Structure formats: structure tokens, C-alpha cells
């Protein structure tokens, strides 16, 4: 019996209006445009307004993703959000807030925490829900207001991150399947990238995000490269067959190191880190949307996604994009 396949039927993003450039950061913290560019490849990032929550960013991306899938909000029967900067500490979930914003009061809605690998984790969950028959149209959203949890006196951290959201809809479509997804984690590396807990109250203090950058770089490059090698080999796909390689946009040096190890050319590789910075779970769908809106990502494009994040978590996905061509 033929198994029906899940497909990513649309992609969309939302960018806050405010731009924070490296030159702006020079006025806030002891750093320089030259240093940031050399170490990260980032030129600027978007910053949400004080009255914009993560759920607001996610809602705006979601509305566009639903429209591009030729659906209405009432067609959505599950909403899953990946974020490390939720509106509230534990509840209500950001997904519940987005459901309310969309006028939906009877859908499955929950958040996951997988840091920068969040969107690939979402794809795996949505694929399982749709192919099992449990759900028909799953809205997946990576949304971040990281500016709300960053210490702008810590120059090693504040130059890296930005705000934004990306969303897509997963539904059945055998013609453009999500071919394969791999996700994994290793908590033994958790202390290399984390938000520290208060010694007094056991409450997570968001302004204590900590990262050991050199160690993260080494593990990330090797892990990302090996994961891609394995998923391509498992599915008998050669590097040159990939139309678009869309990695998590954390650091240009990491992306270029992985690209070189995997022998992808510049035409295949999608880069947005220079203009958005690291937007964690929103990074991959935001990059996908850029490729979609400039015509590189088309219906039927063979796409490889690859991400690595705090936890450590990581994942890769192979899919044929199911969205209709952008007009």
C-alpha cells in the first residue's frame, strides 16, 4: 500500500522594520564593524519594537504562509512553534498566542525548544503528524525576539543575534515530498551554549546567555558536515543534484567551512547571515523565504537544510519544495 507523503507547501517570513547595523553597535558596546565582519560576516540585523512580541512576529509570518498555501486559518489543525525567546516563561505557549491571533480556538498548539535546529525539528514533527493521518495541515513557525533576552553589554553575544520569524505549512502531496529528516542531540555539550539558571530561585535568567565560541565552532562544523554526508548517502543523492543548500545562518565562517567540506558551490548555497544575523529557529525559514521571493526556490526544487544549535541539537532535511512559484 502506497504511503502518502508530507510536503512543505509554502514558506514565508516577517522582518521587523528596525535595522541595527554594526556601526550602531559601535555606539553601544566596545566593538567595531571590521571586527564583527571578520569574525561573523554579519553587517546588520533586525530588531523588534518594544511592543512586538515573538508571537506577533510569528503571526505575521504565519498569515502569509497560510495564504501562499492557498488555505485559510480555519484549514489549520495544528500549530507548532520553535523558539528560545517565547512571550512567556512557561505558559501560555507562543503557539497558543498565535492561534488566538489567527482566530483559532480549537487547534492543537504547542512550542518546542531546540534552539537553532528548531525548524528542522518542526518539519519532522509535522511530517509525522500529517503522514499518520492525525492532522491535515500543520502550521510550523520559527519565531524569535532574541533582542529581549540579550545583554547588550556583552560584546561577544550581542553582535550575533537578530529578530524575525519564518513559517510554512505542511500538508500531504506525493508530488513534492519531504524526502528525509534527521535530528539528534548531545547534552554533554550543553554548557558550551546556554542560559544560566539563578543560584537563588532556579528561574532562568535570560540575560545570562553564555557561549564558548571557539568550542562551538569546532563541534558545529564537524557535526553539520557529517550529518549532511550521511543523509545524502542514505538517500543516494549526490551533492551536485541539490538545487539549494540552506544552512542555519549563524556565522559566515561556519557556513563557508561546511560548504567547502561538502563541496557545494556558491550558486547552491543560500546566504542571509550578513543582513539578518543569527535568528535561531527563524533562521532557516527566513533564508528559504528570501530564496523563494527572489526566484531561486521553486516548486520542485531539491532542497537540503542543515542546522546546529544549543543543547547541542542538530538536524538535516531533504525535500522537494511543494509551494507554488512566486509571482
Automatic annotation (TrEMBL):
This is Beta-ketoacyl-[acyl-carrier-protein] synthase III. It is found in: Cytoplasm. Keywords: Acyltransferase, Cytoplasm, Fatty acid biosynthesis, Fatty acid metabolism, Lipid biosynthesis, Lipid metabolism, Multifunctional enzyme, Transferase. The keyword Methyltransferase does not apply. It comes from the Bacteria. Residues 232-320 form the Beta-ketoacyl-[acyl-carrier-protein] synthase III C-terminal domain. It comes from Campylobacter insulaenigrae. Homodimer. Its main location: cytoplasm.
Amino acid at each position: 500500500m502506497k504511503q502518502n507523503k508530507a510536503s512543505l507547501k509554502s514558506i514565508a517570513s516577517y522582518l521587523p522594520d528596525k535595522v541595527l547595523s554594526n556601526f550602531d553597535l559601535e555606539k553601544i558596546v566596545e566593538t567595531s564593524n571590521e571586527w564583527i565582519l571578520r569574525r561573523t560576516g554579519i553587517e546588520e540585523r533586525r530588531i523588534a519594537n518594544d511592543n512586538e512580541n515573538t508571537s506577533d512576529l510569528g503571526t505575521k509570518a504565519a498569515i502569509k504562509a497560510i495564504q501562499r498555501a492557498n488555505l485559510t486559518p480555519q484549514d489549520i489543525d495544528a500549530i507548532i512553534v520553535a523558539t528560545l525567546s517565547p512571550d512567556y516563561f512557561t505558559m501560555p505557549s507562543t503557539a497558543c498566542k498565535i492561534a488566538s491571533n489567527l482566530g483559532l480556538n480549537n487547534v492543537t498548539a504547542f512550542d518546542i525548544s531546540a534552539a537553532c535546529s528548531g525548524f528542522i525539528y518542526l518539519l519532522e514533527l509535522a511530517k509525522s503528524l500529517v503522514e499518520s493521518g492525525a492532522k491535515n495541515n500543520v502550521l510550523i513557525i520559527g519565531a524569535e525576539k532574541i533582542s529581549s533576552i540579550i545583554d547588550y553589554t556583552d560584546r561577544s553575544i550581542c553582535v550575533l543575534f537578530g529578530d524575525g520569524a519564518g513559517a510554512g505549512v505542511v500538508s500531504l502531496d506525493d508530488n513534492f515530498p519531504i524526502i528525509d529528516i534527521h535530528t539528534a542531540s548531545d547534552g554533554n555539550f550543553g554548557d558550551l551554549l546556554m542560559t544560566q539558571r539563578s543560584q537563588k530561585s532556579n528561574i532562568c535568567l535570560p540575560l545570562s546567555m553564555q557561549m564558548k565560541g571557539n568550542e562551538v565552532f569546532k563541534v558545529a562544523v564537524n557535526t553539520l558536515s557529517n550529518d549532511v554526508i550521511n543523509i545524502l548517502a542514505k538517500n543516494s543523492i549526490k551533492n551536485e543534484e541539490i538545487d539549494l543548500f540552506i544552512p542555519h545562518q549563524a556565522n559566515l565562517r561556519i557556513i563557508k567551512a561546511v560548504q567547502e567540506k561538502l563541496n557545494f558551490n556558491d550558486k547552491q548555497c543560500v546566504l542571509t547571515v550578513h543582513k539578518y544575523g543569527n535568528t535561531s529557529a527563524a533562521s532557516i525559514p527566513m533564508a528559504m523565504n528570501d530564496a523563494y521571493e527572489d526566484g531561486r526556490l521553486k516548486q520542485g526544487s531539491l532542497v537540503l537544510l542543515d542546522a546546529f544549535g544549543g543543547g547541542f541539537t542538530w538536524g538535516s532535511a531533504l525535500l522537494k519544495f511543494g509551494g507554488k512559484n512566486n509571482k
